[in-house]
Amino acid sequence: MTDLSQQSLDEYAEAAHAVEEAVGRRIAGQPELIRQTLVGLLAEGHILLEGVPGLGKTELVKAFAAAVGLRFGRVQFTPDLMPADVVGTQVLEEDDAGHRLFQYRPGPIFTNLLLADEINRATPKTQAALLEAMQERHVTVAGETRPLPRPFLVLATQNPIELEGTYPLPEAQLDRFLLKVGVNPPSATVLEEILRRTTGGTIPEVPRVADLETVAGMISATPQVPIASHLIRYVSLLVEATHPEGASPPPAVKRYVRWGASPRGGQAMVMAAKAAALIDGRPHVTAEDIRWAAVPALRHRLVLGYEATAEGVRPEVIIDEVIRSTDEPKSSIRGAP
User: Fold this and answer.
1) What is d(CA 100, CA 90) in angstroms, rounded to the nearest whole number?
2) Most buried in the list 17, 37, 53, 118, measured by CB within 10 Å?
3) Distances (CA, A) of 95 to 91, 117, 141
């Protein structure tokens, strides 16, 4: 599915909607959460899921693994978790002839979808081991480099309100997540549906609607989506507007932001916009795709000052102001979207 013909566009959108529908059987009333997670998957980018306990973050990841037929692994992060518990280690074994030798035992990271549950509970040393694998997509143990399977995605969860016994991820490591997806409490109507589904004795099954070959083809097709030069300029202006020392930052940025988004933020916006366009069956990126991708791509890349904390200002509010204050550049091609 690497040729962006009309047929491949239709196949991509059909497969994506089938995955959304399948996951929706398990995760009620969260279409935007499902869409953002799917976009991260199709852009082959790691996702940070943030929300208080009990909102279904783990079930979301398990539902995606079941729907797309990828291998699934889970690591429960705790303060005593060691890097070897994630990436694997060398163990001394004895063969049939009585010879002792070291054998490598792979860790749970050798999978397609890895759920890093409560990642902020592990020590920085263990976090760094995981995040290195996320960036390089291989691990090095005992001097030997071993590639990870493809696709390889980490979906990490963290609880934003519990600070005791946690080790918050540094900004440089947060930057390695393509998207940060907020998991919000359900409304009363959605909660009613959740209670119906989960307390009746039978939890809805998630049907398998795709396989590794299909997902790999969709991931390969995503970067090929064309994006106009004026929209690339638009992304650059949005990222620049998050920097308080930029050319003309919005008032909220000057007041509340210490450090703006990195170039990875722009890359994340473009890749998420491309995946969003394909899911909707469109052959090119629009400005609306970019604006939609801005919040999940940038919210974890802004370093806020004390004023923002004191006044309860969230990154989403600042990003909304950045979007409102940044004009979309005009296309140099007449009739271009």
Assistant:
1) 12
2) 37
3) 13, 36, 21
Is residue 269 domain-shared with residue 143, that is, in the same domain?
no
List, in order, residues 6 or more apart from 124 with CB less than 8 Å away: 167, 170
- Residue 231 belongs to a domain: yes
Residue 250 lies in a domain: yes
Q: Which domain holds residue 308?
A: 225-331
The residue from 157, 187, 222 where one domain ends is: 222
Note whether 305 and 257 are within 8 A (CB). yes
- Give the pLDDT score at 197: 85
Say how many Å lie between the first and final Cα of the chain, rounded: 24
Q: Which of 48, 54, 63 is nearest to 158 (CA)?
A: 48
Please report whether residue 50 resides in a domain.
yes
Answer yes or no: is 205 within a domain: no
Does residue 170 sit in the same domain as residue 50? yes
Query: Is there a single domain that holds both residue 147 and residue 116?
Result: yes
pTM for the complete prediction?
0.89
Sole residue written with tokens 């060398």: 90
10-residue block means of pLDDT along the chain (337 residues)? 71 94 91 94 93 84 91 90 89 78 86 91 88 85 85 89 78 90 89 86 86 92 94 96 90 94 95 96 95 96 92 94 93 60
The CATH number assigned to the domain holding 266 equals 1.10.8.80
Q: How many angstroms separate the Cα of 187 from the Cα of each of 28, 30, 143, 193?
A: 11, 10, 51, 10
Structure token pair of residue 289 = 């795709």
Tell me, what's the pLDDT at 57?
Answer: 85
- What is the pLDDT at residue 332? 67
> CA 291 from chain center: how many Å?
17
Q: Which of 50, 45, 16 is nearest to 33 (CA)?
A: 50
d(CA 79, CA 121): 6
